[in-house]
Amino acid sequence: MKLSRQAAIWQGKCPCCREGEIFKYPLTSLTKFGVMNKQCAVCETSFMPEPGFYFGALYVSYAFTVAFFVGIWFLLYYFFQPAKWVYFVAIISTSIFFIPFSFRYSRILFLYWFGGIEFKGKN
Ligand SMILES: [Zn+2]
Which of 14, 80, 82, 91 has the most CB atoms within 10 Å of its CB? Predict the structure, then answer.
């Protein structure tokens, strides 16, 4: 069964074969969510195209954070118009809650966009 590119990104699969896992542990693993496999267990593609590759993922992560801030501010402002401290608490707690999501998807997207790995399928 071949996953679409979007499904493979969403599920954190290898960009080359879309079968192997990029990360070792599930997103919900609070202490190990950031541990990556060095290479794909299925097709042996390296997930580290060059040293320091994932520094660039910080920019993707930054974009996620800004999107969360704006999204939460927008929802609160238009639906509730709460006191100022509510914005602070909601934005800070949501960004902490989304750290694993932001960390993983910034790396996954960065690998797909800039890793120079083409989809080849299993064979
Ligand atoms: Zn693979």
Answer: 14
The whole-angstrom distance between residue 38's C-alpha and the CA centroid of its chain comes to: 17
Dihedrals phi, psi of 85, to nearest 5 degrees: -60, -30
Confirm if 68 and 92 have CB atoms less than 8 A apart. no
Kindly indicate the confidence band of residue 2, based on its pLDDT and cuts at 50, 70 and 90: confident
- Centre of ligand 1 to C-alpha 107, Å, is 16
Assessment of whether the complete model's pTM goes beyond 0.85: yes
42: CA distance to ligand 1 center in Å?
A: 5
Domain limits, the chain: 5-114
Residue type (1 letter), 89: V
- Ligand 1 geometric centre to CA of 53 (Å): 18
CA of 17 to the centre of ligand 1 (A): 4
E strand residue ranges, the chain: none
For residue range 55-114, what is the model confidence (pLDDT) as tens digits?
A: 999 999 999 999 989 999 999 999 999 999 999 999 999 889 899 999 999 999 999 999
